[in-house]
Amino acid sequence: MDNTQHDPWAETVDVILPALNEAAGIRWLLPRLPEGHRAIVVDNGSTDGTDDIAEAGGALVVHEPTRGFGAACFAGLSAATAPIVAFMDADASFDPVDLPRVTGPVASGEVDLMLGARSPLDRSTAWPAHARLANRFLAWELRRRAGLTLTDLGPMRAAHREHLLELQLTDRRSGWPLEMVLRAADAGWRIEEVPVQYLTRAGRSKVTGTLRGTLTAVADMGRILGERDG
Ligand SMILES: Nc1nc2c(ncn2[C@@H]2O[C@H](COP(=O)(O)OP(=O)(O)O)[C@@H](O)[C@H]2O)c(=O)[nH]1
Ligand SMILES: [Mg+2]
C-alpha cells in the first residue's frame, strides 16, 4: 500500500491577494483564476464582507489585523504552501488570465522573479499620472543601482516561495514591492518582466489614487532607497 500522502495543492501556484475592502474585486477575479492557481485572500481588516465572499469563492482566507500592504503580503506568503507564489492586487486591476505568463517562467526555472509590467487599457483611469511618474523614477533608480532594465515596478509578480522567504523582507507597508526587487537583485536572482493588462480598479484606491496613500508610498520607498548606499 502506498502510504505517501497526496497533497493536491503541491503542484499549484498560491496566488496571494492582499485585500482591504475589495469585495467587488474578489467576486470578479476568483472565478477567473486559471487552472493550477489557488487563491489566498489576505483580509486586512475589511468591513465589506471581503472575507465571506472570498471563502464562498473557494479561496483560502487569512486574516491579518495589522494594516499595511507588506503586512498583508507577508501573511499570505507565510500561509502559502505551494512551491511557487504569485502576488496580485485584489481590486480587479489585474486580470487573473494573465497569471500563467508571470508564473510559468518561474515554474519552468527560467526566471527567479517575474514581474508583470503594467500595460494600461485606459491610462487616465487605470493609472494616475503621479503614480506613473513615481514609477518611472523607481525603474530608473533600479537601473542605476542594480543594473536592472525593468520598465515598471508592478505588484503582480511570482517567485519560488522558499527563495522568497530566504530574502527576509522587513517592510510591512508600501515598500514591500521595492524591497523585494532590491534584495532579489542583491542575491543574484534572474529578474524579468512580462506585459500584463492594467485595468481600472473596482472600488476605491487606498494608495496611489489618494494623496495620503501616495505620500505614504513615497515615504516607504524613499526609506528603503535611503537605507542603502545610493
Ligand atoms: N493601501 C493598502 N492596501 C492594502 C492594505 N491591505 C491590503 N491592501 C490591498 O493592496 C492592494 C493595493 O492597494 P490599492 O488601494 O489598489 O493601491 P493602488 O493600486 O496603488 O491604488 C489592494 O488589493 C488593497 O486592497 C493596506 O493596509 N493598505
Ligand atoms: Mg490598485
Automatic annotation (TrEMBL):
Q: Which residues form the Glycosyltransferase 2-like domain?
A: 15-160
Which InterPro entries does this entry report, sorted A to Z?
Answer: Glyco_trans_2-like, Glycosyltransferase_2, Nucleotide-diphossugar_trans
**Stored CDD domains:** DPM_DPG-synthase_like
- What are the alphabetically sorted keywords of the record? Transferase
Could you tell me the superkingdom of the organism this chain comes from?
A: Bacteria
- List the molecular function annotations (GO) for this entry: transferase activity
Q: Which family does it belong to?
A: Belongs to the glycosyltransferase 2 family.
Q: What is this protein called?
A: Putative glycosyltransferase
Q: Organism source for this protein?
A: Candidatus Neomicrothrix parvicella RN1
**Phylogenetic placement of the source organism:** Bacteria, Bacillati, Actinomycetota, Acidimicrobiia, Acidimicrobiales
